[in-house]
Design goal:
mainly alpha, three-stranded antiparallel sheet, two-stranded antiparallel ribbon, 5 strands, 75% helix, rod-shaped
């Protein structure tokens, strides 16, 4: 199946709408965070989030229906446009509010990260001051010295410095106690060094943060000479407007081309269908009317053959001379008919109407076959067409004529 312009724009509108529908849904879900339901492990908002998404779908539907409704009845098209306007306002508001909400969350997160980094830097300063105060000696060195002292004979003689009797034994135990203190200091210094390394690594891994000074905002500020807050609000409005215009334009063009295709199909169908003549809608004639019509037909069919022959010969002799006058008369007759794309009239009715006004206007008598050829050319020149079905009729014109 060959794609049409209507289907192409409908697909484009559906793609943009599918992407854009996340904006009202997310904003509605943020407004109504309690109305959630879990489906297969997926959490969905069935409150304001679902309502906002349905409003977005209704907006796209009314936009696509504006042109077809306008072609059928202008009031219907105007009503679709009027209903669509508040939906568009709500959609733009959802986009602006969600972007503002995201900006607030981004600024809050940036501030939290900045505060955390400031806290890390302050802790680094405190660690440096503590290390400078207690000094730092490798823990392994201190533990080796303690182990060496414990191999001394006094350690065994005093049962691990629990029964020191002489002065030399007490001096040994005092020196060992100082080494134990140095070991505790070395353990603390090792812990501080480890924490210092962790803090420096965390600071190195943190991305560069910015609360509001972004390159595009700086550009808007430089161009327009406005504040950063106004520049960010302008950027939000522009982005929401671009998304809405793209979605509305896609669905509008889809409805426009769909309506144009439907109009062409209707016109083609009307050309191939037999005409619905006014006679079909009338009540059946009374016996008197039927008798008069039959008598009129008999008079026409029983005209003297000699008279018909002489008239035909006269017409053939005067045909070159009267052809221009006949064509001019038919053009003047067609000019008196009503015009309209949806109008139609049977060929015999045109012939009868011409005969009724011919003598009043001073138009020549035209044979039926010649009249049919000339009226076909005149009707086509006026924008109509001749259609052959069960009966021959013309479209674009209609009786009664203006006599």
């Amino acid at each position: 199946m060959k794609p049409t312009w209507s289907s192409i724009f409908l697909v484009l509108g559906a793609i943009v709408g599918t992407i854009a529908i996340a904006t009202p849904y997310r904003y509605g879900a943020w407004l109504d965070q309690g109305a959630v339901v879990s489906v297969g492990g997926l959490t969905l908002n069935f409150g304001t989030g679902l309502q906002s998404a349905l409003i977005h779908i209704a907006k796209a539907t009314f936009v696509a229906a504006i042109v077809p409704a306008w072609r059928r009845h202008r009031m219907a098209g105007a009503l679709c446009a009027a209903v669509c306007l508040p939906f568009i306002v709500v959609s733009v508001w959802n986009a602006v509010a969600l972007l503002a909400l995201q900006r607030s969350e981004r600024v809050t997160q940036a501030r939290v990260i900045i505060e955390q980094n400031d806290s890390r830097r302050a802790e680094l300063v405190a660690i440096g001051a503590r290390l400078a105060l207690v000094g730092w000696k490798p823990l392994a060195t201190v533990e080796a010295e303690v182990a060496a002292e414990r191999h001394h004979w006094i350690w065994d003689a005093t049962s691990g410095c629990t029964a020191a009797a002489s002065g030399s034994q007490r001096q040994f135990c005092a020196r060992l106690s100082r080494l134990e203190g140095e070991r505790a200091t070395a353990i603390e210094a090792e812990r501080l060094r480890t924490r210092e390394t962790e803090l420096r690594r965390e600071l190195a891994l943190q991305p560069a943060t910015s609360e509001s000074r972004q390159p595009d905002l700086i550009m808007l500020v430089a161009w327009l000479g406005i504040s950063l807050d106004k520049a960010e609000m302008l950027r939000t409005l522009l982005w929401a407007a671009v998304v809405e215009i793209a979605e509305i334009a896609a669905f509008w063009f889809a409805g426009f081309f769909r309506a144009a295709t439907g109009a062409r199909e209707t016109a083609a169908k009307a050309e191939h269908e037999p005409p619905s003549t006014p006679d079909a809608d009338k009540a059946p004639p009374s016996p008197r009317e039927a008798h008069e019509a039959s008598m009129k037909t008999d008079r026409k069919n029983t005209a003297p053959r000699a008279r018909q022959g002489s008239r035909s010969q006269a017409q053939r002799r005067s045909a070159p001379r009267d052809e221009h006058a006949q064509r001019q008369a038919v053009d003047m007759f067609v000019a008196t008919l009503h015009r309209g794309a949806e109008l139609r009239v049977v060929g015999s009715a045109l012939r009868d109407a011409y005969e009724r006004v011919r003598e009043q206007r001073g138009w020549p008598n035209i044979p039926p076959n010649v009249f049919g050829q000339l009226v076909k050319l005149s009707v086509e020149a006026a924008g109509g067409h001749k259609v052959k079905a069960s009966r021959q009729y013309y479209t674009g014109v209609a009786l009664p004529c203006v006599a």
